[in-house]
Design a protein that fits this description.
The complex is a heterodimer of chains A (664) and B (343). By secondary structure, chain A is of the alpha/beta class. In chain A, 50% of the residues lie in helices and 11% in strands. In chain B, strands 10, 11, 12 and 13 form a 4-stranded antiparallel sheet that branches. Chain B is elongated. Classes of the chains: A alpha/beta (664), B alpha+beta (343).
Amino acid sequence: MNMNPLAGIPNPFRQTIVKDAWETLQDVPEIHAQAFQTCCRAFENVRSSRRCDSVLLHGEAGSGKTHLLGRLQRHWTSSPSAGEGGSGNMGRCVFLYCRLQTSPHRLWQHVRKTFVEDLLHRFPDGTTQLQRLVACRFAEGDRKKQRPVTKWLGWIRNPANRDHSGWKRILLPWLEHEAGIGYSLQRVLYHLITGRHVLEAGAWLKGEDSLPEEALALMGLSGNEEGQTEDGARDVILSLCRLASPLMPVAFCFDQIEALQTSKNDEESLFLFGQMGASLFNSSNNALLISCIQSSVMDQFKRAIREADYDRIAQREETLDPLDKNLAQSLIRSRLDSNKDLVRLRSRHSQQPLWPIEPLDLDPAFPSSGAATARKIISFAGALFDKLQTGGSVPLQDSSEFLTKEFERRRDMAFGQDEAESDMSLAHGLPLLAETLGGQWRQQRQPHRDIDLLLSHGDKRIAVSLCNQQNMRSLAARLKRLVQWHSRNKGFKMVLIRDQRLPISRTAVVTRNLLQSLIESGVSLCQPDMETLAALQALRSLISDARSGDLQYGGDAIGPKTVQEWVSRNLQNGLKSFFGEIVGASETLAEDEPELMSAILAVLKQHRVVTLEKLAEEIRQPGPLIEDMVKRHPGRIGWLQGPPPVLFDYRPAEILSSREGDEE
Amino acid sequence: MTEETRKAVKGILKQSHTPKSITQIRKELPRSLRVSSKDLSALLDEMTARGEIFMWPQTRFWDHTPRTTLPQLILELLAKSPVVASSKIKTALKLPLELIQPALKELVDAGRAHVWQPGKTPYFTLLEPRNTALEIILKSLTQSPLTEKELVGWVRKKLPGYQARLLKEHVSYSNQILEHPKYGKCKTRYGLKPPEPGPYLSKAVQEIIAVQRFLAPFHVSLEAIHEAMGRELGLEREARVPSRERPQGETVSPVTERLILETITRLQPPGQKRALVSIRELRRSMNLPKKDFDRAVLCLASQGKVALHHHDFPTSLSQAEREALVQDERGTYYVGIVPKETS
């Protein structure tokens, strides 16, 4: 019996998406070599000119932007660099990879968190970027040049030196005078560098305001009533930049700028990114900004941001072109050579460089322009490989089935997220949920820093505020500001959202009183459970990936519109009722046509989602009349314009019935 | 006056990050050790004489000697202002030139700072002047060739006082920069690539246009003259055969192709040859009939002269938005265009 020699060999083309720049991957240096060189030149320019530089990279979805960032990461953090002041293979920069799947109104906070996570990133030799950075600075400041960087690093990492008096003599003055760092940050860095209270110090540095008083006391700090703000996050980032010298620049790699958008037409988030990038550029002298954006968003990006900001974040521009056939073959060869068993088999076919793939079979992957993206080529080659293994095509599941499985997988993963992560999910996910389900609601510019989302429909306004502070002083301060804002803006319905897992302690009397007074003045409190929050996280990651072209199925990208349509058809009761609770705040109990409303709700109880046509048929009422009713009660019934127009019930039956019971 | 006071003074100066005046030191002394200004001054003089502490200008004291501390202060200043004269350093640090000049000399000798002297006044900088000038020259030439005056202007932004004689000297160090010869009205230029023949042909072009007008009554087109010139110059006809991947039956005049490539360059930010240009913007700037424009763009792509970037979700666009893009025969919509990567 002839066994297929390829059977049992894992398909080397299985991985088509690079998750982040820290991933180790097969690399073909000839691909996007020019863009790589441009980034390297910009990097050297920061070092030599002691000024910031920037590169804007654009490419199609799947063109290899993240992969290129990964190549830069390896090149800058691990390349041996003889003659670089004895730094050996210590790396030459602080590398930061920031995927922009976040709320644009919390951009600085997101960058801060990512910066700190990457600063504490551990390399295979066990050292962190922070330790390497400090060792380099010590070596730079060592006037007698007695110790090279590696020696300093060894000294820093040696637990026996933890209590060495040299720390206080050298480190604290250096942090204060050389880097101009404030007291709290000095203390936190001191703990992190000397290996004390690493957990608490790391959490503080990431911006988690929820540390208990005893943890703060342990580090010699006091609590911050304001909680984390964008300005505060910006200050920390700029301080951390000052830790590094221009000889060891901070490479900020911003990936997926388009993921910041909450809708196709959202230009505000692009504008905010421009502001953030320009501010980083202006306020430091050792930052290299590398920003990646999809080609199809470039037009909108240029329109949305200020010209001066664009100039700062695009000092150099590079395009990642789709690959021609030669580069495509190099890419395929590299993947084929990544598996030892396959290499053994391939050595018997030295005349066929792509064996087991026939080069001619790849032609359909290329459109008439003669070039295709790396992801498309890998995906196509993967399908060919599958075919060679099984002797036929592997049947593809339905894209709806794929989305269901993806949603469930992501939701299950999200069950592990902590309260701080859930808060970020809410900040980014709520506008996406509103965009998906709130067909009738328009999102407006935030009127106040404590209002995270503002929805409007006609003269109805709903102001949503996330109150997930774990530190009761921070929560009380926020509630106090909200009380004042609400008293000045009576026309707004206000909804407070607080993660159900976050109790308000009994001793927090002031906080409780403030919350109570808000509720008494008509403000709603909504407390989503873990299941709802996990579903929201799954929703936001699906839509963000789709927007960046990273949601791929069968070689084709699935767009955000497809995901949103799938979501509105398959939405869980939890998310629907959560959104219903928010927009329901705008509804008054009095109903002008109770019979019609009851009839509509009765049908919606039965079918969760129904077209206008079918509903009109069932209750024997004209469509325009129903549409008018629905549009006058946007907080009770969901409406998607379609075509065809669809109505859905925001609230699951049990909530609806209990509410109706209450009303009676 | 006790030994304790002496120790306390030492402690204060050790912890300090700047030189301190007598009044400042006196204020920081513990109440039990506080002495009159006069006594303290005497003590400080004595300590200075013993070499325990050092006197800084304006009667300030520190345990760091100006000789070792000053170079670091100068380096920090140079990091903020790239090119500085010694008089400016004097003003910024509020220290006498007698102290500053040896420190500067030391830094220059150690290769930590450089002297930049385009005229009478020497400037000090962290940048190595020749390499810096060369880097600026190379960067400014990436977009297009430039004249001597233009190049000097670019370099002066970073190195004040830069002169043409220095440019010639610096250019001679680089084997990447080519001098394009002066010809007729064309001035001497510098570039990274051999000169484009275009500017050198302006007289010849005028002549050809005159010939074409002269022969126009006989229906002799510019294309016919072009072909005749090819024959006269002994060029092989095969050299003009379209590349193998050019779509069959689709030819675009070289003039249109050149026009598109030139417009792309015009729409790119200066010096950014790899910046993506929006197809919509290019179409708006070209004013060509849609069919001709689309065909020319696809032709340029199939010849490998440009790369096209497609739109992933064209269905999310309105019909009018899609119309502004270029569509190929497989239905792929292209949204961006960029001249091909050069190896």
